[in-house]
Write a structure and sequence with these properties.
With 274 residues, this protein is mainly α. It contains twelve helices and no strands.
Length: 274
Amino acid sequence: MIEALQFEFMQNALLAGLLISVACGIIGSLVVVNRMVFISGGVAHAAYGGIGLAFFLGIPPLLGAGLFSVAAAFLMGALSLRHRHRTDTIIGAVWAAGMAAGIIFIDMTPGYGADLMSYLFGSILTVPKTDLWIMLGIDAVVIAAAAGLYKQFLAMSYDEEFASLRGVPVKPLYFLLLVLASLTVVMTMRAVGLILVIALLTVPQFIAERWAKTLAGMMVFSCIFGSIFTVLGLWLSFSLNLTSGASIIMVATVTLFVWLAVEYAVKSLRNHAD
């Protein structure tokens, strides 16, 4: 890895991965404990519509993806609150509509020749320094929101009805979390792509939940595990000439399955001993 860091693109990739790990660690923890994984996946895939619209209008793709994903998040959030018994159907419909809109906008774009694969599967090795500053800004917003509203998020996460009765603005917090999740999805898209982004919002958090005793602890451990997966994934991709985003996700998911296997084995041994 030391040899790889001699190259500027690897330095940028490592910094991008670490910055992404912070945002995903914090927002992913809130997404997991609030059972919003599916809606976050919907936001991630709906963002493809923003990419297509951006190419059609000639604006930066990340700007289009950001605006479109925030709009999709608000739409899914509002409809889900009104039709809770059909939440999965609504999210699936917006998810599919976003992807379809992206494809149609790209078809309508004259002389289109951009590489869509980098948005679907990520291209962390091509992250420019300007994007690093954007990622740093999103991290600052996420950290400020999580720290400033920690008690409110904690109350909403563990007992939404009780929190509402205690005067916690649950609905505004819910939509704020959706916006933060949308921004996190857009910044993570540069690393692992829209298809794989959900893994960084869930896998480190699932493992961290086993270690942490508090929501704050879960956030910290999630950031640590995400950073470890990023470093190992980048090293693996550099050593074996593999796609970086996919390598990061594979390291994370293999770690998850090994962790579950170890947990199962330990539990079985304890039961056998008893």
